[in-house]
Amino acid sequence: MNRNFFIAIVCALAAAACGSKVPRKNSAPASATGLSVEQLSMSEARLSWSGPSENVTGWWVYLRSESDGFHVAPLNDDPLPASAREHVFGGLVKGKTYSLGVQALGKDMNSAIEYVEFAITEPSEEPVEESIDPSGESSDPSGESDDPSEPFSVTVDVAGRTVLLSGKSTKGEDLSIGLATVSANKTVQIDTYTIGNESFKSCTDWVGPWNMRTVATTSQTEKAWGFTGGWHGSNGDGTGDPTAVTESIVVTVDGEQVTSGTFTAREASCTVYNKVEAANTKFADAKRFTIDETVTYTFKGGRLYVRMEATAREDLNVTLYYGMQIANGFCNKFSFTTEDGSTTESGESYFAKGIVRDMTGYSAGGHCVVAHLDDEGLGTYSLATPAYSALTQYYGVNNGKGYYMLIGDKDGSSKSFRFKKDVTIYWSGYYEFR
To answer: Rounded to 5, what percent of the chain is helix, strand, coil?
Structure first.
C-alpha cells in the first residue's frame, strides 16, 4: 500500500473518532416549586406543587414528623407518575407539625427535596354575627380592644447597659433573652437566651459586621482587611482592639423611657447607638469611625424584632454585608423558606437560592431559632449577588451559622456597593425562639 495513502486513511479515522460525540447523561431535573398544602380533614392534607416536565420520570413524596431524623425514606413504594402534581397524605395527627416533601426523579439524577411545613388545625367556627348599635358607638364600654400580646418581665440597667427580657415564646415555652456588652468591641448585642431547658451564650454576632473600606486613601495598607463592627476586633476576627463602640442605649417599656428597674410590659425596646470603623481606618493615625449604626431590638408577642439603620459618615466601598444572622454554637441543621413557600434543608455548608424570607437553625437538643427578613430595605436583595440569598457555614459538629446575603457575596467578588456620605440604608425582621 502506498505509504501516503495509508497515512491519509489513519488521519481520516482519527478525525472521525475525535469528531464523534459521546452521549451525555441527562442532568437532574429542576426541583418542584410553589408547594402548598390544603387540609382535607382532621387527618388528611393535600400537597400540591408546580414543577418541570423536562427530564422528569416520576415523583417521590416524603412525610417527616417532629420526632423523625433529618433524612427519611420516600413515603410511596412506587414513584408517582411524571404527570402528578399533588398527593394526599393520611394519618396526620392534630397538634403535630409535619414536613411534607416532594422530589422530581430523573433518568440518571434526582432533584433536591423541597419541603413545606404543615399542622392539622381545628376548622374555624362560623363567625358570630354582631348586632349593630344604631348610635354608632362601640359595644365595648371601655372603647378599647384587647391586646393579644402576652405580658412579660423586663429588667433594665441602662448605666450597666443590660436588658433582660423574660416571657413566653410564640409556642408558649419559657423564654428569656439578654442584651449586654459583649465581644472585643464591648458593644450591646444579643448575649444570652434560654428557651425551655436549653440555654445559649453568644460567641459571635447576630447583627452582622461590615466588610468595607473608605474611598479616600489612608495610611493603612497592611492588615487593612477583614470585618469591623459586630463581634470583630482589629485582627479581623473576634480579637484585637475595638473596631466599634456603643455610644448609648435607650430603653422604652410600653412607650415610656426607663433607665433602671424591673417592669411588666407588653412591648419593650432597646435602641443601641453604635459607631463603626472601616478596615482601613482601624489602626494608628488612620483610626476613625466611618458609619453610624442604630440597632433597635423590640420584644413583643414572643418575638424579638430587629431593625438596623446605618448612615455613612464618608464615602465607603462595602464589599460584603450579611446583616441578619443566626449565631453558631448550637445549630446542627438549617432550613430555608422562600417567598413561594418552598423549603429546603441542609446539615452542611449550603447556599440557598431563591428569595429566602425565613431561615431556621435547629439545635441537637430540640429548640430552633427562626430569622425572618422583611421585604424592604436591604431585604429586597437589590445589592446582593443573584446566585443565592442566604447561606450556612459549619465550623465543627453542631456548630453551623446562618447568614443572609444582603450586600455583595461571600467571597467579596461581586461589585462593591458605593455607600455615599450621609446616605442611610436599613433592614428589618424578627427572631423567633421556640
So the answer is: 5, 45, 45
